[in-house]
Amino acid sequence: MKLKIINGPNLNLLGLREPEVYGGETLSDINDYIETYCEETDIEVTFFQSNHEGDIIDQIQESHFDNYDGIVINAGAFTHYSYAIHDAISGIPVPTVEVHLSAIHQRETFRHTSVIAPACIGQISGFGKESYILGILALQNR
Ligand code: DQA
Predict the structure, then answer these.
(1) What is the largest CA-CA distance in the chain?
(2) Ligand 1, residues 10, 79, 82: which to mutate, most atoms within 8 A of Cβ?
(3) What's the pLDDT score for residue 80?
């Protein structure tokens, strides 16, 4: 299985950014954790992070042309308003799981809406770095 993990804006600041919400680990720590899980379960994994909407859209599109079997995406705040990311996910057949470190439905009202959710096969929110692993499990068990 070939899998892409996409992280959106400000997730490069994990560790520094609101540790009371997102925890003290860096994105690199979380990626190492995911990589270990993928090695153990025979998944070929690629990581991508960007603060730029267009670059994220390019990565989503390329996932199809590069024959990925699944995408796990934490689109950060783009989750709440990027119709372009919704359309990119809808536009390709690669199954995509939306994940969040924090419990978005228990936070500010603007975080309760995900405009990308209708394009994804499911949403996992509130389990810290385990949200990514649960997203991968969902793709593995399809
Ligand atoms: C987040 C939740 C979003 O609301 C926020 O904008 C983020 C991170 C999460 O992982 O909990 O950047 O996606």
Answers:
(1) 39
(2) 79
(3) 98
Q: pLDDT tens digit string along 11-51? A: 999 999 999 999 999 999 999 999 999 999 999 999 999 99
Strands (E), 10-85: 44-49, 70-74
- Which residues lie closer than 8 Å to 65 by C-beta, 6 or more apart? none
Spacing, Cα 74 to ligand 1 middle (Å) = 7
Mean pLDDT for all residues in the chain? 98
Cβ atoms of 71 and 3 within 8 Å: the answer is yes
Tell me which residue has its CA closest to atom 7 in ligand 1.
76
Please tell me the distance from the alpha carbon of residue 17 to that of residue 30, in angstroms, as a whole number.
14
Place of tokens 């990581």: 47
Tokens of 62: 């390329």
